Each structure stands twice: as structure tokens, then as C-alpha cells.
Amino acid sequence: MQYFPLTDKQREEIKKEIGIKDIKELFSDIPQEKAWYSLDNLPNALPENELLKRFEDLGDKNTYSDYLSFLGGGAYNHFIPEVVNYLSNRSEFLTPYTPYQPEVSQGSLQAMFEYQTMMAMLTGMDFSNASLYDGGTAAIEGALLALRKSKKNKILVAENLHPEYMEIIYSYVQNLGIEVEQVRYNRETGKVELDELKDKLNSEIGGFVFQSPNYFGVIEESKEISDIVHSEKKAYSVQVVAEALSLPFLTPAGDNGVDIIVGEAQSFGLSLSFGGPYLGFIAAKKEFLRQMPGRLVGQTKDVDGKRGFVLTLSTREQHIKRENATSNICSNQAWCALRAGIHLSTLGKSGLSKISKLNHLNTAYFVKEIEKFDFVNVKYKKDFFNEVVLELKNDNGIEFLEKLKNRKIFAGIPLKWFYKDADNQVLINFTEMHNKADIDLLVKEIGDLK
User: How many domains does the chain have?
Assistant: First the structure.
């Protein structure tokens, strides 16, 4: 495909037609200091060989690959088998549009069906759809699903939900007439205040959105939370999961009575990639089937009795009705789900179980080793998966992390970024990519900071 840019003459004709004198007028609603960027500092064009050398020189300045990283907070560094890259990069998977025509899309449809099946098994739910955009938008989709089903317009959200997910929820609902109210978390346990949840539940509430493991890495009492939510008629529990590798390790949400589970599946075969594209997932009980956003792939038989796969229980038009749509997810987000499906089938049930357990054991080892110091402590020592909050007794979290950065260690995320009362707390993550020597080095370097 060739690209033919507009000529100056054509641009002038377009401006005259729409009644403007300058292109900048198209962006008049954007604050002026942010609407136009000067191109004066752009370098001159280079021949291809010199351009490649220029990028190589720039790449050589990046030394962060030498650093040891314990960053988490919703984006996790896990091993990806090479078969995931090999299969997902085949052209038939990289190039197809959303498979509305089943007669030419059986491969893509089966891949989505298998992904849905594995996610339903991992979550303990009746069904899963064929992916959402990312964890944050999955959180709001779960909330909206609960509100559509309950026919209410108020939702409760746990205060210890991923802060960026919280921002997305508020952004979505600000013009929808939906009210959001937060439920506090206990500062001693890191878990949702169940008594406050009981107090805030009433006939106007359509559901409660909580995260487990929550943003502090603490596993919530999902069954007890769901029982409390269900005490109110037509109120639903919505569990958010930012670290999908916790799913093979913990009791499935469906077994805990959770109605809807949503989250981020980046841990299944997607590299960190500077923040995307990632993979939102959603699964639910059967009663939510007709309200489910996004695509659903079903298994059927053709006229010859052979097994086949089709988009089912919703039409394309269901997703393009603007404000009346169950969602606006109609572009091909399926490639990320494909990678997740390949990743899950490659590791299998036993492989997933071993890796998720290793994540937890590495974290538990750090919790044990860090106890040798009296100037730091793990704030929530119980019910963690692969992330913990480290509390500093005589140091600021941001300064603490900067000191370790100078020693070539990215030791975590300062909670001060999101919580005003967390000056001295950092969130640290451990995965199967860390070995004992890595964790010992982190502990040693922390000890040397005293």
C-alpha cells in the first residue's frame, strides 16, 4: 500500500472548505501551551545507513538492562517461552481483522475459544469473553456490567484498588450519572474494612469492586466480601486481579462466590513493552451472559456436522450503538489473547502451578531475610502473593529507592505517588525471574543503607 500525502494546494482547499485560516484552529479547545509543539529542534534528514548508526548510538546509552529490577504494581516481568513469540508472529495471526466471517476465520475463532476456556477454568467462572483492552478498562467494564444487571447507578469501590484503575473508573463514569463511593482499607492489615462495607451497602448499590491480591499485594477475603455484598438484593461482587499469575495459586473466584472477575493478563505471555499493549480479561457467572461486553466465541457444528466456531450471543451492532452499546470493543484486540492462550497451553496446569508457587516462595524468602534489620519491616506480613509493602523507619520512600537505583537496583514503587500517608513505604515485587542470589543482593544492599 502506498501513501500519498496531501499537497499544499489540497490543504488550502480543505481549510477554505471548513472555514479556517490556520490548522491550529482545529485544536483551539486544547490549552495553547499544550496544543502545538515546535519542530525547530528536529535534526536534518539522514541517509539510511547513517540513520541506523544514529539509532545504534542512542541505544548504547541505555544502561538499564544492567539493573536488577523488583518493579511490579500491575506490570510484571515473567518468563515467556520462545514458542509464544514464534507462533503468535505468524502472519495469519498478526494481520486478520475481527472475525465476523466464520467461514474464513476458523483458526482465529478457535484460538479465542481456547483462550476463553482456559480463563474460565482459571477463574472458576461459567464463561469468559475474548479479551478487553487492559486491566484498568476491564475494571470499569466489570463495574458497568454489575450496574447493567442490577439496574442501579451507584457502585462501591475498595480504596486499595490499583490507583490507576481507580482513575480510569472515575474518568468513565463522570458523565454517565453513575455515583462511585470508596470503602476504606484497614491500615493494620491492608485489607478492606468489612464493617464499613456492611454499613455502606444499601438498596441503591449495584455492586462492590475490590482487588485481590490488592494493590499492596495482600489477598482479600473474597468469599466473605461476596457474602456481605449478596446480603443486599441485586448487588454483585466484582473482583479485580492485576497479577494474573496469582490465579493458579489462589482459590478460584467462582468458588468464593464472586459474580464477576476482571483484570490484567499481561503476565500470560506479554512482555512489559514500556506499558502495552496489555490484555484485559473478564469472566462471570452465566446470568451475566447477555450483558457481557466484547466478543464471545462459541462452539457449534456446520451443515456437515463438523465442529466449528462462531461469534455468538451478540451481534456486531451490539458493540457500535454508541451510548447504548454494552461496550465499544470491536477492533481486533485478540492477538494479545492469542499470546496468552499459547502461553497457558504451553505451561499447562502443572507448569502454571509451579511458577506461581515460585513467585510466592521468592517473596516469602525476602520477607524472612529482611527481618534481620530493625530499620525496615514488611508492613503486611500475612496473606501476600508476590508483592509486599516495605516500611522504612527512618527514611523517605523516594529517597530510599534513589539510593538503591544508584547501586543499579530498581527496588520498587514509592507508595507516596498514590497515597498521601505513605511517605516511608515502597511496593516490592518478586517473580520466578529472580533467583536466591538476586534477593540476597537486594537484602544486602538495603542493609548497607543503614
Answer: 2
